[in-house]
Specification:
The complex is a heterodimer of chains A (about 400) and B (about 260).
Chain A (H helix, E strand, L loop, with lengths): L31 H6 L2 H8 L6 H7 L2 H6 L1 H16 L2 E9 L26 H13 L4 E5 L9 H12 L4 E5 L5 H9 L4 E3 L7 H7 L8 H13 L4 E5 L7 H18 L4 E5 L18 H14 L5 E3 L5 H7 L6 E3 L28 H10 L3 E3 L5 H6 L1
Parallel strand pairs in A: 1-2, 1-8, 1-9, 2-3, 3-4, 4-5, 5-6, 6-7, 7-8
Helix pairs in contact in A: 2-3, 5-12, 6-7
Chain B lengths: L5 E3 L2 E3 L3 E4 L6 H11 L3 E5 L13 H7 L2 E5 L6 H15 L3 E4 L12 H13 L3 E6 L3 H9 L6 E2 L13 H10 L5 E3 L5 H9 L4 E4 L1 H4 L4 H21 L21
Parallel strand pairs in B: 3-4, 3-10, 4-5, 6-7, 7-8, 9-10
Antiparallel strand pairs in B: 1-2
């Protein structure tokens, strides 16, 4: 193993039986020297790569790429985004169903030791929220919960998915890991995709940050997207929470995870998200903060190495940044989001969300900003007939 | 030129440029590009039909233009999904045409030959005028002709790649053997690609990304229209043969007596 063999990934305590080591297919360490020490020649070669790979991404994530190649990277990324996604931005909206949770994720506003008032939407409230979101014009919805809890268990989620599928063409979930059979049932109820972020790909850091609860199982989480796709969901969204660990390590592992899924599930749609840790309840400070400039570099690099992969950006980022990356690298965005439980049909009871939203523009203002950039906001880009025929 | 019309399923078209309608910055630019292209047959994705939100809908503006529509089934992963999509699209827009588009992998968007064949055969039986988007495979082209497709639509290169006529040798074989129109779909980047396809005997080309992603989409649409006409005219005029060696103007073999 090259120079970074002493990385903390090797330091997981063997005493903890949940301390998984990284499988080879996701391990980014062989490419870290390139990411750290790429030369200008390496970056130029990466910009011309016909078949981009780990070396390409590593060079584009390097300090020299950040210092001297952001503009050429942006030009290439914009061209590729236009080729594959046209001058369009797909829109979606999140709905938090429940903030009950038993996990101890140190960075999360919904973690079990945050003594806030918990809430879970009733079936009637879910219907009202979905109706309110539908009135806004959205055709794609993302349903979220915390860990599997008695208040929001699998049956609850399945019913919520079925209700959403009556109104929306695409229904995706960002919830607790499930079994392949549960994903099969969810697909039958109308679920089209799952987002499941590894948060950090470093097993040791993962254990530090996920202090207790089912989410502490690194290997189970890593295998979840594969189970979802095997269960019949059409797409899997992957991501690492930027700020938790060395971003070069995380982004190379994320790329390897995505490529692994593409190779092992050949019909899978794989999408990537780039959430940057935001201030949230508890005021926890991230150990490896990622600047806006660094996030831009990451987005450009991924567009160049994964030209046909949807890249998503949420309202965690501020309006100016979101408008800047729309169509440059990002092709899918949320808007009008609430990160509280409910909040679309009526004001949320608990006003403290999972994280602070930075882009709180009205939908119309965001659409106008996109149009001003020559980008068409697209609400509907799927058809429920495809879901029902399966 | 005498009566050089493109006939698909009994419908005649003067233009040999077909347009795809996704990927534009707004509906007005799309509408202006269609108008500038002179295209009479345009494709539109069922998944972009949206009666609930007029600004998000591609169908209504195209219906208002009076062009003939060929709804496509993009988003379908298999024959069953494509068949249901075709039926729904016919209900919603009333066109007898369907462009069968089945790509099970949402990243490279390569058409599935097996599912495409299955769906095309079924949809022909149901009375559709079927235009299948297909890999540039000469055997599959004949299979699709045999089941009654109105044309075949082999790819020049991957959707949105701008790879041009990367499959040119297979396209030549398909054209050489086809009894139905061959329409090159996907991958074209420049008007010269369109001209080259028509010069070699393709009946038409379908273009979307190359126009939608151009600096000035309506102007590029007009340029493609010119190229399609030039290519077709050249096809009729008959290209000179290609020779690997120079042809001297003075004969080299005129010294024999008998």
């Amino acid at each position: 193993m090259p120079e970074n063999a002493a990385h903390s990934a090797d330091q997981a305590t063997p005493a903890d039986d949940r301390a998984a080591s990284m499988p080879d297919w996701v391990d980014p360490r062989p490419w870290l020297p390139m990411a750290r020490h790429a030369t200008a020649d390496d970056v130029e070669r990466a910009l011309c790569a016909v078949s981009p790979d780990e070396n390409t991404l590593a060079a584009l994530l390097s300090p020299v790429a950040a210092a001297s190649f952001m503009e050429p990277m942006a030009r290439k990324a914009q061209m590729l985004t236009r080729e594959h996604f046209g001058r369009t931005i797909g829109l979606y909206v999140p709905l938090y169903l429940s903030d009950y949770c038993c996990n101890g994720c140190v960075y999360c506003g919904f973690a079990a030791d945050r003594h806030q008032q918990r809430r879970c939407l009733t079936p009637e409230e879910i219907r009202a929220e979905l109706a309110a979101i539908e009135r806004e014009g959205f055709e794609e919805i993302l349903l979220l919960t915390g860990e599997r809890m008695p208040q929001a268990d699998f049956a609850y989620l399945r019913e919520a998915v079925a209700e959403a599928a009556r109104r929306f063409h695409l229904v995706t979930v960002e919830v607790f890991p499930m079994s392949t059979d549960e994903y099969r049932q969810l697909a039958a109820a109308g679920c089209t995709g799952v987002s499941i972020y590894q948060e950090t790909y470093d097993p040791a850091r993962y254990l530090e940050l996920h202090r207790w609860g089912p989410k502490r199982d690194y290997a189970n989480r890593l295998a979840t997207p594969g189970r979802a796709l095997a269960g019949g969901l059409r797409s899997a969204g992957l991501g690492a929470l930027l700020g938790l660990n060395d971003p070069q390590f995380e982004m190379l592992a994320l790329y390897r995870h995505a490529r692994h899924l593409q190779r092992t599930c050949w019909q899978a749609g794989v999408a990537l998200a780039f959430p940057r840790i935001r201030p949230q309840a508890g005021n926890w400070q991230p150990p490896n903060p990622v600047s806006e400039r660094a996030l831009l570099q990451i987005l450009l690099a991924f567009r160049i190495v994964c030209p046909d992969m949807p890249l998503t950006l949420s309202t965690r980022e501020r309006p100016g940044f979101r408008d800047g990356v729309a169509g440059l690298a990002v092709n899918k965005m949320s808007i009008g989001s609430r990160t509280t439980v409910g909040g679309y049909a009526q004001n949320a009871v608990n006003e403290i969300g999972q994280f602070v939203i930075s882009d709180d523009r009205e939908i119309a203002a965001f659409l106008a900003a996109l149009s001003g950039k020559g980008l068409q906001p697209v609400f509907k880009n799927s058809e429920s007939v495809y879901r029902n025929a399966s | 030129m005498i009566n050089d019309t493109l006939v698909l399923g009994g419908h005649s078209f003067d233009s040999r440029l077909l347009l795809g309608t996704g990927k534009f910055s707004d509906n007005e630019t799309m509408r202006r590009a269609v108008a500038a292209s002179g295209a009479q047959l345009v494709t539109v994705a069922l998944r972009r039909f949206n009666r609930d939100r007029p600004g998000d809908d591609l169908l209504a503006p195209l219906l208002a233009m009076g062009v003939t529509l060929a709804p496509n089934t993009s988003g379908a992963r298999d024959a069953r999904e494509a068949i249901q999509a075709a039926q729904l699209a016919r209900e919603l827009c009333g066109s007898p045409f369907v462009k069968v588009e089945i790509h099970p992998n949402p990243h490279h968007l390569m058409p599935d030959p097996i599912e495409t064949y299955t769906a095309a055969r079924e949809l022909v039986k149901e009375g559709f005028i079927v235009l299948p988007y297909m890999p540039a495979d000469p055997v599959l082209a004949k299979r699709l002709e045999d089941v009654g497709c109105a044309a075949v639509m082999p790819l020049g290169a991957g959707i949105g790649t701008g790879g041009g006529l990367a499959t040119v040798e297979m396209l030549r074989l398909i054209v050489h053997n086809s009894g139905i129109p061959v329409i090159v779909d996907a991958g074209l980047r420049s008007p010269s690609d369109a001209a080259a396809a028509l010069e070699m005997g393709c009946a038409a080309v379908l273009v979307n990304s190359a126009i939608a992603a151009a600096g000035d989409p309506p102007a590029m649409a007009a340029a493609f229209a010119l190229a399609a006409r030039a290519g077709r005219a050249a096809f009729h005029a008959g290209l000179m043969g290609r020779s690997a060696t120079a042809v001297p103007t003075s004969p080299l073999t005129d010294f024999t007596r008998e």
